[in-house]
Amino acid sequence: MVTPVGDDLATLRTAAGWQQAGHRVAIATVIETWGSAPRRRGSILVIRDDGLFEGSVSGGCVEGDVITEARALLAEGTPARRLDYGVADETAWQVGLACGGRISVLVQPLADTGFPITVIDRLSAAAAAGDDVTLAIDLASGVTRTDSTGELLFHWPPPRRLAIIGAVHIAQALVPLAQGLGIAVTVIDPRGLFAADARFAGLDLDRRWPDEALAEWRPNAASAVVALTHDPKLDDVALAAALDSPAFYIAALGSRKNHARRCERLATMGYDTAALARIHGPAGLDIGAADPAEIALSIAAQLTASWRAVHPGKVAAAAA
C-alpha cells in the first residue's frame, strides 16, 4: 500500500493490516521537537516485526535507529519506550540528526498496553464522518487513548478533501498536486467534452451539475472547493454550496474585475460581505503564475496556507 505524503491515518491503517495478517507491530510517534526538527510533532512511523516500515518521524535522519529500537521492543514484549535525539548526542550524530534540532519519539506496541487497535478504528470512523479526534498519551503508562486525559494531547483533524469545479487544463495540473499532499480529489463537470476519462486517468469524474454533486459530497470543515470554469452557471452554484458549508478554503479563478461581478451576483442570492470575503478570488497566491501548472501550484499553496492557519499540527495542548 502506498501511503500519501502526510497521511498518517493511512500509515496507521497499514499497521492495522499488518497486525491482522499476524505480525507484531510498533507505532513510533514524534512527541516533542525543538529547533529545526525535520518532522512535526504527531508524525507517525509504523514498524513491522520483520523490519518493514511505513511513514516517517524525521525524514530519514533517525529512522534506522528507531526501527532497531522498535524491533527490540516487539521481540522483548516490553512497554512503550521514549527515544531522544539531539545534535549534541553521539547516537544522534551516528544516525544522522545533524540539523541542529532535537526530537523525542515514543515507540509503542500496537496493543492495548500501548497504541490500541481501537484507536485506529476510532480515527477511521471520524475520518469518514468528517469529525475531529483528540488522542491523549499517558507517558507514565505509555498508553494512547481517545480522550483528553494524558500528558500529551494530539489533535487529529479529518482528512482533507478537494472539489474542483471544471475539468479544465488547470484541474489536470492541480489534481496530482493535491493528491501528493494527501488530499482526496473530486472533479465535477457536466460538460462531456471536458469531463473525458482519458484526460484524468485513474480519477472518477462527477458529471453532474455542481449543486447536485456538492449536495451529495457535503463539504465539511476539512473540505476545499475551487471553481475553475469561468462559467457563472457552474461556478456560482458551486460557490453558493461552498458558502453554505464550513469549508476551510473556497476559491474561484478569474480576474479581480470578474470576481467583483461574481460577488455582486452572489450578493443578490443573499450572501453578505463577510460570507463573500471567504472566497479567494482570483484563486491562488500571487507568485506571478504564467501557465496552468504554475496557477495550480499557486492554488495548492494557498489551500495549504489556509489549512495550516487553522490546523498548524497535531498537538492540541498539554494536559492540565
Outline the secondary-structure elements.
Blueprint: H1 8-20, E1 25-34, E2 44-48, E3 53-55, H2 63-76, E4 81-86, H3 90-95, E5 102-109, H4 117-129, E6 133-138, E7 143-145, E8 152-156, E9 161-165, H5 169-180, E10 184-188, E11 205-206, H6 210-217, E12 223-227, H7 232-243, E13 249-252, H8 256-268, H9 273-276, E14 279-280, H10 292-310, E15 315-318
Parallel strand pairs: 9-10, 9-12, 10-11, 12-13, 13-14
Antiparallel strand pairs: 1-2, 1-5, 2-3, 4-5, 6-7, 6-8, 8-15
Helix pairs in contact: 1-4, 5-10, 6-7
Which terms would index this structure?
320 residues, 5-stranded antiparallel β-sheet, Rossmann fold, 2 domains, alpha/beta, 6-stranded parallel β-sheet
**Strands, count:** 15
N→C terminal distance: 39 Å
Main sheet properties: 6 strands, parallel
Number of domains: 2
Strand content: 15-25%
Domain XdhC Rossmann: 162-303
InterPro entries: MoCofactor_Util/Proc, XdhC_CoxI, XdhC_Rossmann_dom
Protein name: XshC-Cox1-family protein
Pfam family, one: XdhC_C
Describe the overall structure.
Residues 162-303 form the XdhC Rossmann domain. InterPro entries: MoCofactor_Util/Proc (IPR052698), XdhC_CoxI (IPR003777), XdhC_Rossmann_dom (IPR027051). There is one protein chain. The protein is of the alpha/beta class and 320 residues long. It folds into 2 domains: 8-156, no CATH class; 161-310, NAD(P)-binding Rossmann-like Domain (Rossmann fold, 3-Layer(aba) Sandwich), CATH 3.40.50.720. 36% of the residues lie in helices and 23% in strands. A 6-stranded parallel sheet has the order 11-10-9-12-13-14, with helices on both faces. It has a 5-stranded antiparallel sheet with strand order 3-2-1-5-4. Strand 2 (44-48) and strand 3 form a beta hairpin. Helix 1 crosses helix 4, helix 5 crosses helix 10 (292-310) and helix 6 (210-217) packs parallel to helix 7 (232-243). The longest helix is centred in the C-terminal third of the chain and has 19 residues, at 292-310. Residues 1-6 have low confidence and may be disordered.
